[in-house]
Amino acid sequence: MLTIRSAFSGFSAPDIDAERAFYADRLGITVSEGMGNLMLELPGGHRTVIYPKPDHQPATFTVLNLDVSDIDKAVDELTAAGIELERYEGFPQDEKGVMRDNGPSIAWFKDPAGNILSIIQDD
Fold first, then answer.
1. 96: Cβ–Cβ under 8 A, 6 or more apart, which residues?
2. Where are the domains of the chain?
3. Beta-carbon count within 10 A of 49 CB
4. What tens-digit pLDDT sequence spans the chain (123 residues)?
């Protein structure tokens, strides 16, 4: 049986400097760097690596979900930081861009590389 010490996920971006500024300065996530990669230090001891990829293609699915205690406050904070929420045709999103009726409340936005992120209130 495989013995796993820890785990982390990762995704690519073409411009690591733009990613650092976005995640650290606009989202307030602790970011460290090493060997050309960024490591997002997330609450709960979780980590995600962002690695440079010149021919990057943005993911067409959510690569990172950020659990928040108050989705309306989080939406307001993202909007105040100049981050635009995504709207998806056929999804029952309200005027703020939050989908509230199909499980946990969730809203989506993109990082500078076009990767899809979400804020989610799961309570």
1. 72, 75, 85, 107
2. 9-121
3. 14
4. 888 888 889 999 999 999 999 999 999 999 999 999 999 999 988 999 999 999 999 999 999 999 999 999 999 999 999 999 999 999 999 999 999 987 899 999 999 999 999 999 987
Q: Which fold has domain 9-121?
A: 2,3-Dihydroxybiphenyl 1,2-Dioxygenase; domain 1 (3.10.180)
Element (H, E) at 13: strand 9-13
If we measure between CA atoms, which residue out of 28, 119, 20, 13 comes closest to residue 81? Answer: 28
Nearest to 77 by CA among 39, 107, 103: 107
pTM of the model: 0.92
